[in-house]
Amino acid sequence: MTTGLRLxxxxxxxxKPCYLDPDTAHPGPLxxxxxxxxxxxxxxxxxxxxxxxxxLVDATAGEHAVRFALTRATEALENVLRIAVSRGxxxxxxxxxxxxxx
Length: 102
Prior knowledge:
This protein is mainly alpha-helical. It has two helices and two strands; from the N terminus they run E-E-H-H. A hairpin with a 5-residue loop joins strand 1 (6-11) and strand 2 (17-20). Helix 1 (29-57) packs antiparallel against helix 2 (63-97).
């Protein structure tokens, strides 16, 4: 199991998840890189959302434009979900550390 490990915002070339054993006292360079990549991915997702909306309201958009927008939206959603899972796990770990009832 990956308890305590940080799910990184990228995968291996084979599409498998990557994890980091975080240093809770001081984030290391890989953790800081992951933070930066997450911010970039979230910004890209906002841009993709805007582009997708533009294609949807354009009655003249052809199949190529719709397929392109859907492909980018799928990629962005995959990244955002990975970030959400990673952050949710870390929030759960922080809550468990602060819970004196365990």
